[in-house]
Amino acid sequence: MDTIPWEITLTVLGVVIPTVAGVYEFFFIGRKRLGYRIQMDTRAFGEDFAGARHPSLVLVRIENNGSVPVDVDDYMESEPVGLSVRFPRRRVVRAFDPTRRGPSSPTNAIPLLNRDPERADPDVLRLPRVPLNPNEHYKVLVVLDELDGDNAPERDGDESDAVMESRIKGGRITRTRYRARVSRGVVALITVMASLIVALYYVSEDNSTAAVDCASGKLAVVGSTAFRPVLEKAAASYREACREAPGDVEIDIRATGSQEGVRTLDEAGREAGEDGPAMLAFSDGRKGDGHPQLLPRPVSFSLFTLVVNKAAGVQDLTPEQIRRIYAGRYRNWSDVGGNDLPIALVGRYSNSGSRRALEERVLGGATEPNVTSHDCRARVARPDHPALRCERGSTQEALDTVAAVPGGLGYAEAHAAGARTDRLRLVRIDGHPAELDAADRGVYPFWATEYAYTYGQPPADSLVAGFLRYMTLEVGQDVIREYGQRPCADLANPRLCRPS
């Protein structure tokens, strides 16, 4: 009896799995489904904030993660309330919609539903009956008063004690973390079917071919110095995976700065033939204007941090303090509560993506001041700005300079900076450390999307396309994670990685 080829089996199972999972989810789980997510739950600084003696701030997200719309009549609370969220041992002081959806928005009822301070259940947040189409959401910012005062526990979004006490007709309300998940039954079903696929593959075929999409030839990778360690490790891993494939693989990493890499690719593309240059450019942030032939591909979410020499005596700066330092209004660390040392700014050249991320996300669009020093210790003869500032060409050079100058302040990719804590200190911004989860939630501002640029669409069988696919698939993503960054697909809010 003839056996069925394993390729046909894989194709059939590839259709069966999502079909069965979809039917199970549609008929047995329920089509109407709301999710609620606590994206932030943190104690606020100071006392008597918004009428709360021990204030805490909570950001609640309500989302329709079902397959059909949720209408106003689907809520089961007494009108006009649609949903009730309880916060044990805390009192709701204020609640409002931070998205400002417009004067006619149903969420404008949020302050009215929560303004009575004498209600019997002050620990309950009342939300209106908001109609939501699939994948739509809204957010509510809540000011709470900690009834336990100084004994209240520290929380974050995942550890919040908020409890949803409402239901909807013909469906359910579930708490989500980063994104709505399929049910456990569907996960179990997919796991079993996937195991069968793997077993069939190894039983039916001698898996001696390389799993990587190997291509041969020479490839130049230019651009970001901050992303260079990731690219070097990924290139070495790709060459190793393709060592038995026909043809040689040569990948040359030339990190000269994000914007310089973009310009190099653009110039090479104009001189190349129809297939384009054998070159990729990686940039910390967008390419800028004037390069219409370059196509972006979001690769990762890159985190940056300010760094200071430990002698400066600071660990935390507010955004306003940072802007004043770079504007030259604060020139000594004692101006912000640190030691009596002059502030020496260690910047990057204008082609640096790290510098562009600082200017856009931390300095509010302002540019770094001009160079007024060559060694970050003494001013040049005719400085044109009150700040003392020098420039360096790469991430490591900037970190070396900050480590050598007692009052040094610079910035770098967070993973690279974290390896230099012997003489450097990573600066918190408004109390938030340089952590990916904080940036993902929107409370830490210093980050950038790492883009890979090609000149036009490269041929599918080219080394350019093969290495780019490798960077965005499992092995390449593992390398990205290894160096403290995060693939775009891992984000709670993947839109952060989309090209602007």
Structural overview:
The protein is an alpha/beta fold and 500 residues long. 27% of the residues lie in helices and 26% in strands. It has 12 helices and 19 strands. The chain has helices spanning 6-29, 110-113, 184-204, 228-241, 258-271, 319-326, 353-361, 395-404, 414-418, 436-441, 463-472, 474-482, and strands spanning 32-43, 55-64, 81-86, 90-96, 124-128, 137-146, 163-164, 171-175, 217-223, 249-255, 279-284, 294-309, 316-317, 344-348, 388-392, 408-413, 424-429, 447-455, 486-487. Strands 9, 10, 11, 12, 13, 14, 15, 16, 17, 18 and 19 form an 11-stranded mixed β-sheet that branches. Strand 9, helix 4 (228-241) and strand 10 form a beta-alpha-beta unit. It is flat.
Strand-helix topology:
Blueprint: H1 6-29, E1 32-43, E2 55-64, E3 81-86, E4 90-96, H2 110-113, E5 124-128, E6 137-146, E7 163-164, E8 171-175, H3 184-204, E9 217-223, H4 228-241, E10 249-255, H5 258-271, E11 279-284, E12 294-309, E13 316-317, H6 319-326, E14 344-348, H7 353-361, E15 388-392, H8 395-404, E16 408-413, H9 414-418, E17 424-429, H10 436-441, E18 447-455, H11 463-472, H12 474-482, E19 486-487
Parallel strand pairs: 1-8, 9-10, 9-11, 13-17, 14-15, 14-16
Antiparallel strand pairs: 1-2, 2-6, 3-5, 3-7, 4-6, 11-18, 12-16, 12-17, 12-18, 12-19
Helix pairs in contact: 1-3
